[in-house]
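Data deposition worksheet. Section B asks for the primary sequence of the deposited chain exactly as it was used as input, without tags or linkers unless they were present during the calculation. Section C holds the resulting structure in token form. Section D is free text for depositor observations; keep each observation to a single sentence. Incomplete worksheets are returned to the depositor.
Section A, Depositor: J.P.
Section B:
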Amino acid sequence: MNIPLSSNFFGMMQLEEYYDELIDGFMMTMGLYMFALVFGFILGIGLAILRQYGGRISSRIATGYVEVIRGTPLLTQVFVVYFGPLALNAFLESNGLPPVFEDWQVLGPDWWGGTKIIISSRILLGALALALNSAAYQAEYFRGSMGSISSGQIQAAVALGMTRQQSIRHIILPQTLRRVIPAWSNEAAYLPKYTTVVSFIAIEELFNVGSWIVGRTFLVFEVYAIIAVVFLVLISVVSFILDRVYDKIKIPGL
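Section C:
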């Protein structure tokens, strides 16, 4: 069935009153994205170092974590992180013990003079689930980059009086971060799309807000077209920035 262009135009006009909600949803998506990317970056580097240079036990723990996260669906991980504390509370209360997890939220002003939820336990747990998932994938990118660096560099650093930890920090990590950008940029570009999964625990990110608007207006095509364009532009900008960064700091000859 052909949809008249005039119908799409008037549908877009009807969405004007929901632009505020879409902007708030986009800001929530960006908050989730930045938290997951930065937290995952820090944890991912730690996991990569443990896998590549850790001892027998620490290396196996890091490997087990990465394999479990990569081998299970992201949605399952979100549910475990979100419902896990609730299940623990129910268990403790059933045994006459106080709960260890409290539901909370912080309100603040929005862009339009009203109030909105800035952060809450639900949002924090959703962001944490995304970060734990991202860390496993980032760890593999970092480990691959570390593996491309000759082990003789650490041996030479130790021979010059550096400790193993100092050689990793001052020699291996700087090269790792410069080499890893082309591969790591895949995670940085894909992660915004993964934030849509937390809509299943009622976090009002962009996709969830879009679904709410569809339920009120029935403008399915128009709403999801806007969301698709927003994600396309966001991912294109992230990829462009990382490409320019790599061109500036890449190691000559590699």
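Section D:
Residues 5-249 form a domain with the MetI-like fold fold (CATH 1.10.3720.10).
The chain has one domain: 5-249.
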